[in-house]
Structures are given as structure tokens and as C-alpha cells.
């Protein structure tokens, strides 16, 4: 009998996948099995930057001897491929940020009447950082206009440096200055990075990678941070909210509308519109009991963080959502939207609606978003979903599993939890780390990936890390993976956390896995790390903290940009999967050893999740040693637990066995 391969660690997802296989429906999981990665391109050894090639630099002595037609060496080719990914990832987050800045400007100038500044306190915080006058009777919209214009300068400035440079600790900035990687502006760094990789320009791998780091820093400390800040200003800085996660969020007797992608603006308006009495009455006139709004990927995270809108999960759940047969419409904006959803939707009644002028899809209905008439457009989308409700026909796989979730943690709220509105700080957390109650902090982020039992690596690492007294901050599909596993509740996670971490979480009143938002909100981790450095007692820069970033199932170029801005900011980062520079020992050494010497951060690629865990704990413990903190001793606080018992091992096996790339 053919052995069934577990394709997702989520039971709900796995059930739908199996149902789809029986029905002959093809998903990303089937395609991942059929399409093996090209081993030359996968490891960075293929150059297709000009039309003399593609040149494949292979062979046992390729590092030293292989040359492209122009003479490019393997390290040059691998470094160029890497920095191209950084530029693409940076452009994605930052173009999203540009639209947010234009929306803020339109709101300030009274041109986007469906929006207001919801968080004036956050606006004033950002104005203060930028040196813009606020308060003393100055109209809020004037402050907002100046903030928007100043942040827009971060895109096209030719000389100087990004506005938020001073938000980084002084020592971190000094390292950037020493190595010439202070970003000038987003567009300039993206363009220069791409220029350097053009045929016949920059050939020195180390120099190419330094340029890549400058570009990545423009993503983290400008593009992503701008997007997070403006989204908070316009829609509110997140505070903890209760919701639900998994494919069971869809309702048989209500209109199900899904918002998917990354941009929050239209989704925010849809949240308002689905609550309008006229819309609910219209849905009832079509035989539905109401309208059920759900999210997917990072648009989901945006509306989950601020409104508790339930999430159907991360990247690999998008086709599966449609396969429930219950999704009446899926409204998509930009990034991480599989073109496959249009084909899948054609097998059901689901309407796919594209909304961005930048992103269209054959087979979709296009309703173009414009922030100047946001409600009008949102109503069109909601109506289309309602009109489609009576058309449900094809039998889908109806799944009911879902888990409670607590999301909505921001830097501001975490500080508030540690001292209240006026005395908020990171003192309790820093003290807990110094004492060894909390061993360290891990940012568990990045995508979920059909090349492994999807979400399985996130689940394994999340559970093992909290058992080892490591506090987790999560974003993007990492959060979705934890949410759809039921890990984002204080109770569930506290039952599994190590005794020291459990004590601290109970004292502060936080769960051990903090959902910080969308992938663009990794910038919140930068501001948290900076605040912890400023608080004192640990490292006085981001580098040297007992902190690590992990993206075990990454697939997007955005993840590469994120990993690199963390590395340049001083955080050791470990990605799962095969290394996209694995063909070159020199480039691998630069990104692990040389970057660590210069910035105290690094970027590793490691397919084995047990080795990822071991490396993360090793980095945390050696940072503790270098800071002369109390040696971490498991079980010193509270009651010691068995960190990996047989039941836990069986649970991992049930979720797909020891997960590894290339099932
Ligand atoms: S959506 S970039 S799959 S985290 Fe932000 Fe998820 Fe990765 Fe897209």
C-alpha cells in the first residue's frame, strides 16, 4: 500500500488536501512534489543576468575554477543572486509603505474622507521622532501631513540618510557607519543594488553583499517601519484581541468573504462595511444569516491585530480555503497571492477579486482600489460576495476545526504591560533575562512552505523554544502557523512553557508567543530590541542580545530582505531549507562568520529543524556568556519539566515526522 505523506501539520489543512486528492484537485502541495527544485539554481550557482547565459557554475572545484562567459566566479554569481533577492524583497515591503504614506497624506489633506487618524498618540510619537511640531493647538491633520511628506522623502532622497536612523542604538549605527551601509533612501538603495548586479558592474562578493545589507536596512528601518507606523496611526496601534484561526472559520449559513494579501487599507474599510445594517439586510435577502469576514496571509494579520477578524491561515492555506466550497469571494491585494487560486476558484463558485492596479490575474474580477473612494469600492466587493452566496454549488470539504487566538501585541502594548501607561518599559523582561528565568528571545517568522509538512517546522520550533524558556515574538505566516495550531492562547502555551518563562509570562500577563502582526511588522521587533538595549542590563546595542531570528519555512524574497536587515542590525538569523548561496563557501562564510564579526548578526541556512533549534540555543547561550549573565539552568525556577518526552515526540511524528525539505 502506498504510504501517505503528511503534507501539512495542520489537521484541518491535511483533511482538505486529502479530500482534494480524491477529487483530483491539484494544489501547491502536489506541485511541490512534482516540481523538484533545480539543484543548480537552488544553491545560487546559476547566472542568468545576461543573454550570453544562463551560465551554470558547477563541478567539484567550481568555487575556484568555474567561470561564466564574462569570467564571473561562483562567489560573484551567488552573491549577485542573493542581493537581487534582497532588492526584490525590499521593493515589495517598501512599495506597500509608499502607498500607506500616500494614504496618510490624502487623509491629512481631506481627500480620503472614509479614513481618519485613529491613533493621534502614535502620530505624535512619530512626529516627535521626526522632529515635527505637534500639540500646542496644532491641528492633527497638519501634523499628519508633515509626517507623511517627511516619510515620503525616504523613498527618493538622493543624499543623506533615512529618517529613522536614530531609532537604532548608537553602537548599532556606528557599525553601519564603519562598514558604509547606512541607507540613503529606499529607491536609491534598491536601484543601486540592482545596478551593481547588472552584467559587468560589481564583482566583489563581499562588496556586493555589503550593498545588499544597505538595501535591506532601507527595508527594515524605513520601508517596513514606515508601513507599520502609518498603519498604526491610521487604524490604531494593536492591543490584545481574541479571535479564531484555521480553515474552520468559514460558516455554512453566512456569506464568507476573505481578504488576502498584505495591504490593510481596503481591508479596514471592508471591516466597516460588513457591519453596515444595509449590507447585513442585503445578505439576509439572499438567504444568508449574515456576513462572515475572514482573512488570509498578512492582510489577515492586519485585521486580526486590530479587529479580531479570524484568520484562515497562512500562505499554503489559500487554495485550501477555496476548497471548503464556502468562500463566496476572496478579495486580494498584493504579495503572496498564488495565481493558482483563480484556477481553483473556477472549480467552485468562488469569485476572486483583484484590487491593486499593480496586480491582476486572469480569471479574476478586477475592482480597482482607490483610497479616495474606499467605502464605495468596499461596498461593491461585499455586494459581489453576497450576490454570489446563492451560487454555492460544488461540494467542498467542510472543515470545522478552529482554535482560539490572542493576537494584537505591539511594542507600545508590551511596554504598557510592563509598567502601565506612564511607566511602561522593558525592565521586567530585561531583569527576567538577566536572572535566567527567560533564556532569550526568538523572532519566529516567515512563510509556511509546501516543500515541508507545511507549518510543521514552526510548530516544532515554537513548542521546543518555549519549553526551553525562550520567549517568542512571531509575525506573518509564522503567527498563522502558531495560531492554526492553537498555540496563541496564554493557557495552551503556558502549559507547555518552561517554568521560568511561565512565571514571567504570568507575572507580566503575556502569553509566551506574542503575535506582533504581518511580515511588514517585523519592524516592531527592531523597535523592541532597540528599547531593550536602551533599558540597560543586557547589550547596549541590538548585537550581542540573547536573541535570534528564525524563518524555518521561508520562501519569499521578502523573507530574505528581512533576514538580512536583522543580520545587519545585530541578530543571528537562521533560515530553514537549502541555502540559496550554498554553492559558494566564500559567500556562506561572509554571511555567517564575517557578518557576525562586523555586526554581531549573521544569516544561516539549515534544513534540519533540530539543528536550527540547537544553533539558536547556542547563539542565545553564548550571548548570555559574553554579557556575563547568570548561566541559564533548565528548571532552576519553578518545577523542572521533561523537555522532550515520548508524548511530545509522537505529537511531532503525527504532524509529519521529523520535518525536512524535499518531501
Ligand atoms: S504573507 S512573505 S508567505 S510570511 Fe506576509 Fe506569509 Fe511569507 Fe507571504
Plain-language structure description:
This protein is of the alpha/beta class. It folds into 3 domains: 74-235, Substrate Binding Domain Of Dnak, Chain:A, Domain 2; 247-391, Rossmann fold, CATH 3.40.50.2030; 408-653, Rossmann fold (3-Layer(aba) Sandwich), CATH 3.40.50.2030. The two termini are 18 Å apart. The model is unreliable at 639-646 and 655-663 (pLDDT under 50). Broken Fe4S4 cluster binds at residues 262, 297-298, 314-315, 336, 446-447, 476-477, 518-519, 556, 558-559.
Reading off the top of the CATH hierarchy, the class of the largest domain is best stated as: Alpha Beta
Biggest β-sheet, characterized? Answer: 6 strands, parallel
The small-molecule ligands in this entry are:
Broken Fe4S4 cluster
Helix content: 40-55%
Low-pLDDT windows of residues: 639-646, 655-663
CATH architecture of the largest domain: 3-Layer(aba) Sandwich
Number of strands: 15
How many structural units, i.e. domains? Answer: 3
Separation of the first and last Cα atoms: 18 Å
CATH topology title of the largest domain: Rossmann fold
Question: What's the helix and strand layout?
Answer:
Elements: H1 11-23, H2 28-34, H3 39-42, E1 46-47, E2 55-56, H4 62-65, H5 74-108, H6 120-130, H7 140-156, H8 170-178, H9 186-197, H10 205-235, E3 241-245, E4 255-261, H11 264-273, H12 277-285, E5 291-296, H13 297-307, H14 318-323, E6 329-332, H15 340-346, E7 351-354, E8 365-366, H16 374-388, E9 403-407, H17 411-417, H18 420-423, H19 427-435, E10 440-444, H20 456-467, E11 470-474, H21 476-483, H22 490-496, H23 499-508, E12 513-515, H24 522-535, E13 547-551, H25 557-569, E14 572-575, H26 585-599, E15 602-605, H27 609-626, H28 646-654
Parallel strand pairs: 4-5, 4-6, 6-7, 7-8, 10-11, 10-13, 11-12, 13-14, 14-15
Antiparallel strand pairs: 1-2, 3-9
Helix pairs in contact: 5-7, 5-9, 5-10, 5-25, 6-7, 6-10, 7-10, 9-10, 10-24, 10-25, 11-13, 11-16, 20-27, 22-23
The structure holds Broken Fe4S4 cluster.
Amino acid at each position: 500500500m502506498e504510504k501517505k505523506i503528511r503534507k501539512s501539520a495542520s489537521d484541518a489543512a491535511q483533511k482538505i488536501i486529502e479530500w482534494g486528492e480524491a477529487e483530483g484537485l491539484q494544489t501547491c502541495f502536489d506541485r511541490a512534489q512534482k516540481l523538484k527544485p533545480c539543484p543548480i539554481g537552488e544553491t545560487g550557482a546559476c547566472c542568468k543576468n545576461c543573454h550570453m547565459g544562463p551560465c551554470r557554475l558547477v563541478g567539484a572545484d567550481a568555487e575556484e575554477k568555474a567561470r561564466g562567459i564574462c569570467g564571473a566566479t561562483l562567489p560573484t554569481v551567488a552573491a549577485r543572486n542573493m542581493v537581487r533577492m534582497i532588492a526584490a524583497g525590499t521593493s515589495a515591503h517598501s512599495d506597500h509603505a509608499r502607498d500607506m504614506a500616500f494614504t496618510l497624506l490624502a487623509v491629512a489633506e481631506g481627500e480620503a474622507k472614509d479614513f481618519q487618524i485613529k491613533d493621534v498618540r502614535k502620530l505624535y510619537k512619530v512626529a516627535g521622532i521626526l522632529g515635527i511640531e505637534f500639540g500646542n493647538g496644532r491641528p492633527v491633520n497638519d501634523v499628519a501631513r508633515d509626517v507623511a511628506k517627511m516619510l515620503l522623502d525616504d523613498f527618493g532622497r538622493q543624499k543623506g540618510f533615512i529618517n529613522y536612523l536614530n531609532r537604532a542604538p548608537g553602537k548599532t549605527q556606528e557599525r553601519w557607519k564603519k562598514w558604509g551601509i547606512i541607507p540613503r533612501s529606499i529607491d536609491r538603495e534598491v536601484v543601486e543594488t540592482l545596478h551593481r548586479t547588472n552584467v559587468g558592474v560589481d564583482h566583489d562578493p563581499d562588496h556586493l553583499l555589503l550593498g545588499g545589507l544597505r538595501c535591506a536596512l532601507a527595508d527594515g528601518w524605513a520601508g517596513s517601519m514606515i508601513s507599520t507606523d502609518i498603519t498604526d496611526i491610521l487604524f490604531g496601534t494593536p492591543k490584545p484581541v481574541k479571535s479564531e484561526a484555521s480553515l474552520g472559520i468559514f460558516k455554512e449559513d453566512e456569506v464568507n468573504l476573505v481578504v488576502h494579501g498584505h495591504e490593510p487599507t481596503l481591508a479596514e474599510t471592508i471591516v466597516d462595511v460588513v457591519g453596515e445594517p444595509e449590507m447585513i439586510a442585503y445578505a439576509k435577502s439572499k438567504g444568508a444569516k449574515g456576513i462572515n469576514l475572514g482573512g488570509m496571509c498578512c492582510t489577515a494579520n492586519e485585521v486580526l491585530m486590530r479587529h479580531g477578524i479570524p484568520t484562515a491561515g497562512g500562505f499554503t492555506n489559500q487554495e485550501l480555503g477555496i476548497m471548503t466550497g464556502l468562500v463566496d469571494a476572496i478579495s486580494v491585494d498584493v504579495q503572496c497571492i498564488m495565481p493558482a487560486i483563480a484556477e481553483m476558484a473556477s472549480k467552485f463558485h468562488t469569485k476572486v477579486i483583484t484590487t491593486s492596479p499593480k496586480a491582476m490575474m486572469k480569471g479574476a474580477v478586477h475592482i480597482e482600489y482607490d483610497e479616495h473612494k474606499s467605502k464605495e469600492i468596499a461596498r461593491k466587493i461585499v455586494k459581489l460576495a453576497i450576490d454570489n452566496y446563492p451560487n454555492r454549488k460544488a461540494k467542498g470539504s467542510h472543515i470545522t476545526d478552529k482554535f482560539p487566538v490572542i493576537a494584537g501585541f505591539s511594542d507600545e502594548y508590551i511596554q504598557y504591560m510592563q509598567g502601565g501607561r506612564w511607566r511602561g518599559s522593558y525592565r521586567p523582561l530585561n531583569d527576567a533575562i538577566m536572572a535566567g528565568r527567560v533564556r532569550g528571545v526568538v523572532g519566529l517568522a516567515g512563510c509556511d512552505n509546501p516543500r515541508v509538512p507545511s507549518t510543521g517546522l514552526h510548530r516544532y520550533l515554537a513548542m521546543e523554544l518555549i519549553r526551553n524558556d525562550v520567549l517568542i515574538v512571531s509575525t506573518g505566516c509564522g503567527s498563522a502557523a502558531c495560531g492554526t495550531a492553537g498555540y496563541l492562547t496564554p493557557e495552551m502555551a503556558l502549559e507547555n512553557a518552561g517554568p521560568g518563562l511561565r512565571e514571567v509570562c504570568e507575572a507580566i500577563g503575556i502569553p509566551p508567543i506574542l503575535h506582533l502582526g504581518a511580515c511588514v511588522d517585523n519592524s516592531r521587533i527592531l523597535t523592541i530590541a532597540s528599547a531593550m538595549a536602551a533599558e540597560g542590563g543586557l547589550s547596549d546595542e541590538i548585537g550581542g542580545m540573547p536573541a535570534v531570528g528564525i524563518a524555518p519555512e521561508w520562501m519569499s524574497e521578502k523573507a530574505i530582505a528581512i533576514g538580512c536587515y536583522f543580520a545587519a542590525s545585530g541578530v543571528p538569523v537562521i533560515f530553514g531549507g537549502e541555502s540559496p548561496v550554498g554553492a559558494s563557501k566564500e559567500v556562506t562564510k561572509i554571511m555567517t562568520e564575517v557578518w557576525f564579526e562586523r555586526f554581531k548578526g549573521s544569516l544561516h541556512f539549515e534544513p534540519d529543524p533540530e539543528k536550527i533549534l540547537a544553533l539558536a540555543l547556542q547563539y542565545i547561550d553564548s550571548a548570555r556568556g559574553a554579557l556575563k549573565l547568570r548561566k541559564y539552568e533548565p528548571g532552576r525556577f519553578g518545577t523542572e519539566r521533561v523537555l522532550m518526552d515520548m508524548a511530545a515526540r509522537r505529537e511531532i511524528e503525527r504532524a509529519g515526522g521529523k520535518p525536512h525539505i524535499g518531501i
